[in-house]
Design a protein that fits this description.
By secondary structure, this protein is mostly beta strands. It has one domain: TonB-dependent receptor, beta-barrel domain (Maltoporin, Chain A, Beta Barrel). The protein contains 5 helices and 35 strands. The strands form 5 sheets. The chain has a 22-stranded antiparallel β-barrel. The chain is globular.
Length: 605
Amino acid sequence: MIKKHLLTCLFFSLTNMLSAQTEKQLEEFTLVENRSQTKSANANRYVQIISKEDIESSSSKTITELLENTAGVDIRSRGSFGTQADVQIRGGSFEQTLILINGIKFTDPQTGHHMLNLPISLFDIDHIEILKGSAARVYGQNAYAGVINIITKKPLGKTISAGICYGQNNLQQLLIGGNYQLNNYQQRMSLQRLSSGGYKTNTDFSALQGFYESSYSIKKSSFNFMTGAQSKQMGANGFYSDRFPWQYEETKMGFGNIQFEQKNFLNLKLRAGYRQHQDMFELKRDTPSFSQNKHTSETYTADVSIGNKNILGAWNIGMDYRVEWLNSSNLGNRKRIISGFFAEQQISKYKNWSIVPGICLNNYSDYGWVNYPGIDVGYHFGIVHISAHAAKTFRVPTFTELYYTDGAKSSLGNANLKPEQAYSYELNGNVQKNQFTIKTALFLRSGIQQIDWIKDSITDPSWKANNIGILQTKGIEASLTFKPRTRWINFPISAFQIGYCYLTVEQKTHESISRYTYDYLKHQFTFNSSAILYKQLQANARIRYENRMGYLPFWLCDLKFYYQQKKYQLYAEASNLLNQKYVETGKIEMPGRWIRVGFSIQIGQ
């Protein structure tokens, strides 16, 4: 109760303070969704934006590092620089977060552990939209606790870019990319290699990835093609069991997607895509025959949507079809077909009000029909936007949860698992005035038949996948962002963002020892700041505090100094500057201080 009062006081006191500012308004982003496009300031949800400027000034080398300094987003790494990491939002599991690239779903039927295996570098990204809370009404399966949508840069001009980085533990990064634009035809591509000898025994890794995108527009029609591939090899010290320090893993993935869009009397969008992921895991790197699993998953997708304005505002309807295959030495040969229908009506005819009801209906070949209704309501008055959200969400088990077993029988899937579902509620406040933005949220997710890996007792040798019953997740979240369009005189800070998230999870039924449910982030604090030190010499600092249930809390600080010219950047940076010892999952100790230097350049215009 005290936390709620403090949050309310902070919200309204800062509202009054910001009313006195007279600077220019912040840049708005158009949120890319399956159904419709909405300005970020008008969204009836808690949406966090990581902008291109945030990315370029950050010391991050991967998407994983970029996301971990966002309050409400929990990144649990098993190695350095995104070699293997799980992403969770607001206390949800790693199976309950949906990843998109330009609104296109990237899911893996084998396991959510592969969600962040993406063949896209920070060089390719314009910005990232993070939608907190359930979004199944919009995106369907997997959008259970939140959605991360990665938006690529538009290929403008004719340029060639390159970057190189070297750091401790023989860290090496080499990147090359380019844009080509000729009238209405645009294309861009990138190729990156990132590797390291590791920060301790069996933590070495090597990752090679490439990305290509092209588009062509004529009058009110446009065509887009996107493809990419990634290959990773990594020492997996303690990844999934602390009993085997010499684990080893290789993953490969590739995808292709084509899209046609026409904006005329009806706004029409047609998409088709393919994704393949290969995973090879060994318990003993030096003895592959001891235990080796190989998995290959394939996903075929197609969807169509149409929409237009009407007397109430705007409507959108559509259909999608998805086929998921898995060929596995452990899980067997599996197939799932998902077909669906969605509809949404934006109601904006009433002054200051925005109401968006909608529903998604899916049919699963192994679970039948499911519906995900939901509604968002927003009200504007002055610089304040208040909104509320209520929705049902749903997730079917992955093939790992259903069928997995290892040689030692330390983990056992459950073919009798039922899908998990939840009812999600949220109240948001958003104030945007000139260079300041304040966001606050109160949220509740009441889950039914939640899936977790459990033990009946401490002496039980096996983790078993099971439906653990009712699970309630409650929390508050707040952020303050300062991003002026022009520099304030005698004020070196060019931008900063402060974020905080508080969570509590309560299980109403099923007393057992949980593997994932209760190791959530109870308190999470983030601070990101950029400063102009002298002319083109700039700095970026990131500080985060994590207090995770069952783990020791820790503070981390990352720092980057860079000299920025129009065509090149020279930088020196350090992650975990204070050399803290910390663990994010299992018993895997994360890297200490890691120093590196680098240079990037762009030729052309």
